[in-house]
Amino acid sequence: MSKAFIDTDVILDFMIARGPFAMDAARIFTLSEKKQISICTTGLVFSNAYYVLRKLGTHQKVMEKLSQLARLIDIIALSKASVLQALDSKFGDFEDALQHYAALSENVKTIVTRNVKDFRNSELAVLTPDQYLSSLK
Questions:
Q1: Residue 27 lies in a domain
Q2: 60: alpha, beta or left? (left if phi > 0; alpha if psi -120 to 50)
Q3: What's the pLDDT tens digit per position in 86-98?
Q4: Domains of the chain: total
Q5: In angstroms, what is the C-alpha Rg of the chain?
Q6: Residue ranges, the chain, pLDDT below 50
Q7: Alpha helices in 35-111 (DSSP H)
C-alpha cells in the first residue's frame, strides 16, 4: 500500500470541518483509520495547524485535537537533506518545498492538497482530495 502525504489545508479541512472540503478530508481519514490507506504528514504541518487552530480555541483544546490527529496519521521526519533540497529547489513556496522533499525521502507517492498549483515542480503525483479518493477506486 503506497503512502500519501496530507498537506496542512486538508488536515484543517478535516479538523474544523471547513465548508465543502470537509467531506473528502473526512473520508481520507476514515479510510486511514480503517487501514485501507496509509497517510502521513510532517511535524511542520502540526505546527501550522496549531497556529490556525489556536485562533479558534484554547491551547489545551488545540493540543487535545492535535493529539487525536497524531493517532490517525504517521508523522515523517523533516531532515537536513530535505531542507537543503528545498533551499535549492525551484518551488515558489519554501514550505511546500520542505513538505515535498520530506515526502520524497520517505518514498511517498502522492501529495494530497487543495493547493495543487504550488506543487507544479513536484516529482510526486499531486492530487486534490477528490482526485485522490477517485484514484483509489
A1: yes
A2: alpha
A3: 999 999 999 999 9
A4: 1
A5: 14
A6: none
A7: 43-54, 59-70, 80-87, 94-105
Residue closest to 108 by CA, chosen among 120, 95, 122: 122
Question: Do residues 71 and 106 make contact, with C-beta atoms less than 8 angstroms apart?
Answer: no
Residue 33: give its domain's CATH number.
3.40.50.1010
Q: CB count, 10 Å around CB of 20?
A: 7
Element (DSSP H or E) covering residue 25: helix 22-33
* pTM, to two decimals: 0.94
* pLDDT reported for residue 13: 96
Residue 57 domain-assigned (yes or no): yes
What pLDDT is recorded for position 137? 83
Domain that holds residue 23: 3-77+109-116+124-135
Q: How many angstroms separate the Cα of 9 from the Cα of each of 1, 35, 45, 49?
A: 24, 22, 9, 9
Q: Which residues contact 21 (CB under 8 A, 6 or more apart)?
A: 9, 10, 13, 114, 129
